[in-house]
């Protein structure tokens, strides 16, 4: 698949996920959508799916850890 098509599909998916974030507006769902957007940006726009695996997993892990910490903070806040 040509790179321009992949980038266009990633952009469309990010737009749909952003709309879903606005429409749903619940804490847990927003965090899951944010993690999905981080995955799309890492693999799609940054093209780390073809790059060093260490960087790919580091960026994907960072997004998941950040989402988990924010979720924990929201849970503890009540």
Automatic annotation (TrEMBL):
TM helices/strands, residue ranges: 59-76
Claim: Transmembrane helix is one of the keywords in the record: yes
Main location: membrane
Keyword ATP-binding: no
Keyword field: Cell membrane, Membrane, Transmembrane, Transmembrane helix
Database matches in InterPro entries: Cyt_c_oxidase_su4_prok (IPR005171)
Cellular compartment(s): Cell membrane
Membrane topology: Multi-pass membrane protein
Domain of life according to the entry: Bacteria
Cross-referenced Pfam families: COX4_pro
GO cellular component terms attached to this protein's record: plasma membrane
Protein name, as recorded: Cytochrome C oxidase subunit IV
């Amino acid at each position: 698949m040509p790179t321009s098509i992949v980038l266009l599909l990633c952009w469309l998916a990010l737009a749909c996920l952003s709309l879903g974030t606005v429409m749903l507006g619940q804490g847990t769902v927003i965090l899951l959508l944010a993690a999905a957007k981080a995955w799309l940006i890492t693999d799609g726009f940054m093209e780390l799916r073809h790059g060093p695996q260490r960087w790919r997993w580091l960026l994907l892990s960072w997004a998941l850890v950040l989402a988990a910490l924010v979720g924990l903070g929201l849970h503890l806040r009540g």
